Amino acid sequence: MKHYTHHSLKSLHTFGMDVCASHFVEYDSVEELQALLIRLQSEWATLPWLHIGGGSNLLFSSDTFQGVVMHSAIGGWQVVMEDETSVHLRVGAGVVWDELVAHCVNQGWGGMENLSLIPGEVGASAVQNIGAYGIEAKDLIVSVETIEVATGSERTFECDECDYGYRQSIFKGKLKGKYIVTHVTYRLQKQPIFRLDYGNIRLELERMGGEITLDAIRRAVINIRESKLPDPKVMGNAGSFFMNPVVARTMMEHIRKEYPQMPYYEVDVDHVKIPAGWMIEQCGWKGKAMGRAAVHDRQALVLVNLGGATGREVMALSDAVRHDVKEKFGIDIRPEVNFIM
Ligand code: EPU
């Protein structure tokens, strides 16, 4: 186990603010996590704690975190089941998500290719139910292995016990802060079914030319993401800052009377999802700055740190954007990013 005191989290979260944690601890096995949880309940019992993954969904309100920040370095992947059509792969929570996607694509296993280049790690993929281009992590998850914070005991959740929804899970909801993910098992397909009808994937594949393969889809997704989303190494950001709101179909129909060009996605008979990025752009925020924080000029769902922005500056921008969207469309858009106060 690695333990550092007064540790800078600057390189450990993608908004890139210089936040100092009183303790930063990294463990690389279930046993080490269990030992760490004992310390958390004794020596560090009075301190708040925070478990981070790749730090791609975090915004700190202050430049210090007076508590314990934990990070999983549980690595490795192994095939735990294989038949003619599918493979079940058990993966450590600390594995970098996109390295896993690249591995599966190289093996010819389908399922994850549309989720290429999403920042973050495997543990968070199961908590956040990450998604892009018509696929969500829940579509691939078989089970999630965890450790209960209070007792250190192991518990495996089958996918249908995880209450998955759009960017939602039991680990963010009812059981928030109660379990830490250690391993996730995914189901991949040996005869992949390509999902090309979402966003510009098909268009990009046509532009690229050549055969449609898992690798080509991965490259197309990477091209699209790189063209719209800022590289956190160059400009701090946390990907989509807001979730796309799910609203009543009647509300969407009402707004479309005034904005017939408004895009939307089907959710169920009574609900649709409206792209928050579109609404933010309509409010005139795309490319606009407030202090050292700004709305990205190529994708309005992304807030960026122009350099030296504080968490409070980004939160102020978020509030201003939310206010204007609410006023113009009557819809409250909610941050996907976790605010650490
Ligand atoms: N749009 C605009 N202006 C903008 C941004 C978007 O008009 O500035 C419109 C687009 O033209 C399109 C629609 O909004 O009609 C949707 O845009 P896009 O395909 O870029 O996706 P999104 O809904 O903004 C979601 C995910 C992304 C994921 C993409 C692709 C959320 C919160 N975000 O964004 O996930 O990559 O779909 O599937 O659901 C992330 O979570 O960090 C992330 C990047």
What keyword list fits this structure?
341 residues, alpha+beta, 5-stranded antiparallel sheet, 4-stranded mixed sheet, 8 helices, binds uridine-diphosphate-2(N-acetylglucosaminyl) butyric acid
Ions, cofactors and other bound molecules: uridine-diphosphate-2(N-acetylglucosaminyl) butyric acid
Average pLDDT number? 97
User: Over all CA atoms, what is the radius of gyration?
Assistant: 20 Å
What characterizes the major β-sheet? 5 strands, antiparallel
Q: Strands across the major sheet, in which order?
A: 6-7-12-10-11
Give the low-confidence spans: none
**Secondary structure: number of strands:** 20
Principal-axes geometry comes out as: globular
What's the end-to-end separation, in Å? 27 Å
Question: Could you state the order of secondary-structure elements as H and E?
Answer: EEHEEEEEHHEEEEEHHEEHEEHEEEHE
Structural class by SSE content: alpha+beta
Percent of residues in helices comes to 25-40%
